[in-house]
Amino acid sequence: MRLAVAACAAVLLAATHVPAASAQGARATASLNGKPQEVVRVAQGARPRAASKKGQKTGNRYYVDFRARTAASYGHAFVWYGKINEEQVEVAGLHPAGESVIPYIMGHVLFVPAETGASYGDLDEQYLTASYRVTLNEADAEKVFAYIKHRQANSPVWNAAVYNCVAFIRDIASFMGLQTPASHLLYPEDWVNQLRELNGGRKTVSLSTVQ
How far apart are CA 129 and CA 92, in angstroms? Predict the structure, then answer.
């Protein structure tokens, strides 16, 4: 118990210079490009990159994009998903709840309440450090999107070591039949890049071949 308290105190002291708004778990309700409370509108109007012609020819009109972005600490991992060529983009990612940096700091020692939607910076390409997009047909997309929402509804806590943002998107990748890196403790950018390499950069996924 004393060790845990001491560790927590050390983390708190070390993080006093980390701006709350730029921490990994900053809420999506934080200002975006200087416009407070605009995240929902931007999320609905964000334009995902067009899918490859290969994906369109095979009838895969849906996508899941495994993404990593910069943050004040290690970075953040999350997914975009939706229908190709539609402006609306859905975002799912695990991060500490609240606008304060304190839950993020405490989450290095304890489990803290989590949120699973968009966080600050998830919709800004300027913060993007890695991306691996795969396409799916409609039937498979329905299953995958339902699973993502299931994970969101059943991921109430966050911990930096036990279940973090990388572990959250790892579960999604595993459900889709993708090979995943052995550890969820990699930097988000490294994990997403390794995910792409392990799967040979494949652009399409078919659940019928893995489930």
Answer: 17
Q: What is the pLDDT of residues 45-76, one digit of tens each?
A: 344 444 444 444 457 899 999 999 998 889 99
Q: In what order do the strands lie in the sheet with 157-158?
A: 95-96, 112-115, 157-158
* pLDDT tens string 175-204: 999 999 999 999 999 999 999 999 999 999
68 Cβ neighbours under 8 A, 6+ residues apart: 75, 76, 77, 128, 129, 130, 131, 187, 188, 189, 191, 192
Q: Which residue has the tokens 């911990």?
A: 159
Domain spans in the chain, listed from the N-terminal domain onward: 2-209
Q: Give the pTM.
A: 0.75
Strand order across the 76-83 sheet: 90-92, 76-83, 62-69, 128-136
Of 89, 81, 47, nearest in space to 175 by CA: 81
Secondary structure string (H, E, C) spanning the chain? CHHHHHHHHHHHHHHHHCCHHHCCCCECCCCECCECCCHHHHHHHCCCCCCCHHHHHCCCCEEEEEEEECCCCCCEEEEEEEECCCCCCEEECCEECCCCCHHHHHCCCCCEEEECCCECCCCCHHHEEEEEEEEECHHHHHHHHHHHHHHHHCCCEEECCCECHHHHHHHHHHHCCCCCCCCCCCCHHHHHHHHHHHCCCCCECCHHHCC
